Amino acid sequence: MDHTSPLLNDLWGIPWLDFNLSTVLMTFISSVIVFFICFFAARNLQMKPTGFQNFMEWIIDFVKGIIGDTMDWKTGKVFLPLGLTLLVFIFVSNILGVITMGVWGHTLWWKSPTSDATITLTLSAMVIILTHFYGIQVKGFKEYGKDYFRPAPFLFPLKIIEEFANTLTLGLRLFGNIFAGEILLGLITKMAMIFVPFTTVFAILPMLAWQGFSLFIGAIQAFIFVMLTMVYMSHKVSSDH
After folding, report:
1. How does DSSP classify residue 193?
2. Which of 2, 79, 100, 204 could make a disulfide contact with 106, Cβ separation 3.0–4.6 Å?
3. Transmembrane segments in this chain: where (predicted)?
């Protein structure tokens, strides 16, 4: 099985501008799934939540807990929609390639969009940019700029390096875990096809075990991404870190 991805090259006459079509497709599918999850959870709101509404409110409380652990709730409540969106979107994106993998013409089309470093690094860059935006909005540009020279001015270069390091580690951590999981699933699938039906029978148990483990990893990675997002945000908007 060849896990190559289809590329759209030379778009709008720019030779170096490539788009991974399968990543674009899966990102769109993830977004649609997240939209319908939130839509069906909120379309018939009740004072005594039941069913899907109860599950969604549990997720909201979970994100509230993450924010409350990293900063004062009065300051952090504005970040609830951001944390909720990231948690649900990343989790859905993580598990799409775990449930199944779609290959058409030796090209991998159905996969987890977070198994593409472009997506995860874009998410992490977006998060870091938002931390700067809200930091300036809450503290003001002058006061925010002073934080880079505290507690000592000579730390300024290290703090600039830290911003780039946070972007890379936040994105590559998510990418590495999801990509490695998909690679192993692909290897198990190859093993299952070596000598059908005998190898298929022996590959079923490892496949199911790894899919279950990957679901757990997908949830943990979504939690870690949101937790670190709120930690980075608290460093920018809070006066006492």
Report:
1. T
2. 2
3. 20-42, 78-105, 117-136, 183-207, 213-233
Chain mean pLDDT for the chain: 85
Residues facing residue 14 across a β-bridge: 11
Instruction: Count CA within 13 A, CB hemisphere, residue 184.
Output: 15
pLDDT in tens, 54-104: 888 999 999 999 999 999 998 899 999 999 999 999 999 999 888 766 666
- The pLDDT of residue 2 is 44
DSSP string, 115-168: GSHHHHHHHHHHHHHHHHHHHHHHH-HHHHHHGGG-S-GGGHHHHHHHHHHHHH
pLDDT of residue 240: 62
Of 34, 185, 177, nearest to 100 (Cα)?
185
